[in-house]
Specification:
This protein has 93 residues and is α+β, with helices and mostly antiparallel strands. It contains four helices and three strands, in the order βααββαα. It is elongated.
Amino acid sequence: MRKWSVAEAKQHLSEVLRSAAKEPQRILSRSRPVAVVVATEAYERFEAWQATQRARTLAEAFEELRSLAASADYVLPLPERVNRRNAFAGARR
């Protein structure tokens, strides 16, 4: 992977882009990495991989659970609703 300073990358942008089609190009600012230029195809593969690594949300997990329960004809029995005493119901400010 070739390394370019920010100034070099600015001066040789076309070369950086052509080289990125072959292999990633690292951009450094004061010897510290700040960016990597990669081919579009490589970036798209990364995005696809990243989407598969994303943690699912609670809503997605419940949707999967509902789907599994429906496919097994399982119905979750719900207990009868019971009103409980509320200590805050009569409190006033």
